[in-house]
Amino acid sequence: MNLRQLRYVVATADHGTMTSAAQALYVAQPALSRAVRELERELGVELFARSGRGVALTTVGEQVVRQARIALEAVEAIEGLTVARADGRGAELRVAATLALEAELTGWLIPRFSRDQPAVRIRAVRCAGREAVAAAIRSGRADLALTDLPVPSDLAAHPVEHREVVLVSPPGLKLREPLPPAVLDGMPLVLPTRGGPRRAELDAMLARIGVSPVAAVESDEQRSWPSWVRAGAGSLLWYRSGLEDTQGLVVRSFTPPLSRMIGLVHAHRRLPPVARDFLAFAKDAARERRNGDGRVREHL
């Protein structure tokens, strides 16, 4: 028996279906179901009665959930005893990020948070990718991490921002709307320089959908990308929320949509106050940006 299993059982009881519980915890539904079944086998009892409409607690399941809530509250209280900092004064927060998101963390989130809480010392932890992010959280090198979702089920995930990827093209390009992702195969694109984190992330997305575009221009000068598109050099994959001046350009969506979910993750434990403050701040800042109040634009 472990705390993750107890959290999954409580969430399933609260949400009524394992699918809804998995969505609330932002974990894969098969992983949650497997953890619940493992706990049932370990205890030798059935916690939930399954049906086509969802699940219902058995009599013994109700007793287990009642005790699981007490156990989880006790764990949170014990972890809270280790937080000896009042109102974040003198607190230190370690936030990891993948290379592709490091600029967003250090150039936008941390400066804005530090403006509101100048006494908090924030240290950015650089990670090569999602696997390194997970390792930093598990080892305790970082309290939080900014990364792409989903992450392994032993980490708690908080979605911060959903970003739609669109195709930005010169007006003469005749394409239907919305576009099938297959149209990208062989298409000339303006791309980040090969070997960098932005290009690696984009190449991974293109590989997942099975297309191989042609690199018409390779440049890390993000501000110059729309100019290359206007000049007819190629099209560009960009986040819809990051578009500013689209004059002379055509923006098209994909079907099914191409998107990316960014989130903050941490270990399944009670966060110190400063980490909870940063988590709430990041969600509010992303909401402001969606409403057009933010000043920093996303990059691939």
How is this structure best described in words?
The protein has three domains: 3-81, Arc Repressor Mutant, subunit A; 92-160 and 261-290, D-Maltodextrin-Binding Protein, domain 2 (3-Layer(aba) Sandwich); 162-259, 3-Layer(aba) Sandwich (D-Maltodextrin-Binding Protein, domain 2). It starts with a helix and ends in a 10-residue tail after the last helix. The chain has nine helices and eleven strands. Helix 1 packs across helix 3 and helix 1 crosses helix 4. The radius of gyration is 22 Å and the shape is globular. The protein is of the alpha/beta class. Residues 83-89 and 293-300 have low confidence and may be disordered. The strands form three sheets. Strands 3, 4, 5, 6, 9, 10 and 11 form a seven-stranded mixed sheet that branches. A two-stranded antiparallel ribbon has the order 1-2. Strands 7-8 form a two-stranded parallel sheet. Strand 3, helix 5 and strand 4 form a beta-alpha-beta unit.
